[in-house]
């Protein structure tokens, strides 16, 4: 059934979810640089009858600052369209009575302003970049090892991302480090957690099969989306590596050069 | 205990068992020299993420344009910059050699992360397996024993790390005695299967037991 495969599925789609880093822009000096064709691609999607949301595991900035950054790069985007792990984590912490010890980048701290951080009974770890010092990791470790029931929330579980002209370790590596040290399993808030994707779908009022995820991370974007019943397409920008196309467990529904190509292919199906 | 011969050797973990360190954990000589032998055998040029005192064991090894990563206990190097450098190398195929994978150790000011967590993080990120040279690798214990000229069934290991000292030793065919000093935490003895041959309060008790029951 050609219409249910990529790109034929573009015809019956009702919504598109875009990963941000590696799809819209690349991280790097001075805040980053827009990926060629992506600004225009977002405009085209907004002009179409497709619903659009942005789904990121970015945890170095709070949403407002992050959206401002993208606007400065030229993107048409607003906070209400962006789903990131920190607000989702705050909701979980409050719901379940957790008071966190935070190991996150300074830029993300405002997201946690309304959370009680006294006498921590869990640790929340995000992409802390240069705050991932031995001392800070040790402090987080000591909080966990001192708890009768250690609980670790990880904002995303990615292995690496593109930074400048190389790859940098993502929060997942540090999450694994603390998991190993404390003999526990972290709870991932953000991609690829099904709860996270579901919250985006709920906001769009769509069923999984009516939505498509486009991302550069084969496992967390594409695999995570497929796991929820969505289609997932990988772009060859950002952290993409040729070996992704021979992955042992995840096969993307489609692989395209970049967001611009993906959007053109989708919109062509709808004319 | 069928098949056990008379005791001929006792292996003793140092840090946390004989004394509590406030500086970097000193490795048993065998695992550092074993790492060096491995590097020499494979003609590797290592990026050495090691404490200064451990670097001495690698004098004479070419470390220019590194094509391998050797990682031991090295708080100074366990920051995102050096780890990124190690990650990029390993992702491109450089072998990752771990002196050992201890989860944590006891410092004067409390428990502190060992190299294990950072090795685990790199393994996850680069989707690779490190070659672990030290405890709890079986080969580490058997090599130490072959230096002493005795077999595992003639040996006992005393240590404060249930999994890496005692579990590793028992897995190699030795008896293991867990001491409740150093990094030991209540319930550690339940973390390995089979459980330690004996769990006792400290090194002197362990020795008393050996002298009384195992000779």
TrEMBL record, chain A:
Biological role stated in the UniProt entry: Phosphatase that hydrolyzes imidodiphosphate, 3-phosphohistidine and 6-phospholysine. Has broad substrate specificity and can also hydrolyze inorganic diphosphate, but with lower efficiency.
The keyword Iron-sulfur appears for this protein: no
Protein known as: Phospholysine phosphohistidine inorganic pyrophosphate phosphatase
Keyword terms: Cytoplasm, Hydrolase, Magnesium, Metal-binding, Nucleus
Catalysed reaction equations from the record: diphosphate + H2O = 2 phosphate + H(+)
Organism of origin: Dissostichus mawsoni (Antarctic cod)
EC number: 3.6.1.1
An example Gene Ontology molecular-function term: inorganic diphosphate phosphatase activity
UniProtKB/TrEMBL annotation, chain B:
GO molecular function, one term: metal ion binding
Pfam families: Hydrolase_like (PF13242)
InterPro entries: HAD-like_sf (IPR036412), HAD_sf (IPR023214), LHPP/HDHD2 (IPR006355)
Cofactor: Mg(2+)
Annotated GO CC locations: cytoplasm
Keywords attached to this entry: Magnesium, Metal-binding
Positions in coiled-coil regions: none
Annotated signal peptide: none
Source species, domain of life: Eukaryota
Family label: Belongs to the HAD-like hydrolase superfamily.
Name recorded for this polypeptide: Haloacid dehalogenase-like hydrolase domain-containing protein 2
